[in-house]
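Entry 14. Ran structure prediction on the chain below.
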Amino acid sequence: MADPQRTITLIVVDDHPVVRDGLRGMFDSAPGFEVLGEAADGVTGVDLATRLDPDVVLMDLRMPGGGGVDAIAELTRRGARSKVLVLTTYDTDSDTLPAIEAGATGYLLKDAPREELFTAVRAAADGRTVLSPAVASRLVSRVRTPAAAREEPLSAREREVLALVAKGTPNRGIAVELFISEATVKTHLTHLYAKLGVKDRAAAVAVAYDRGILG
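Output, structure tokens:
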């Protein structure tokens, strides 16, 4: 869990100068945040994130000169510490799912209230998945599988693993918490992904909330 007293560092990646200025002003005027830099495209954003190592990258998706999904995938490939929070005007399936699959920790729309944005950045810095309601519902409908697959129940251990995933706990932390090996954690994840009809942690959490398995 992130220290609530520490300053969360971030960079803003968006092709619109007005949006970048607005976000910088918003975060600079709020306690607990520091904007380290800005980029106008995904390629520059990846370089900036690699060099400055912020806690969170606020990433737009559709940008000339390098889109957000490719940038997220590249940061994931490089093993970047920074968490990526997508902040965009688009919530269509063709935008949402690729961004989540590429490794985004969260996905918010630009019409989110400022306090919701602050909360989302703190959660992302903490490694927790953040999805706007509209995006969550789209993601759930996109990853739905036939009824037979949806009805397969999770075991008690799989539910325990899933609950820890929802808290942003990494595999090593789950292993320590449940007194099992990391290899066993990965096996449980593989099984629960198959039962939920998903491919990654964010989608598993979204579907689990939708089905009432979590919360």
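The chain has eleven helices and six strands. Will compare against last week's run tomorrow.
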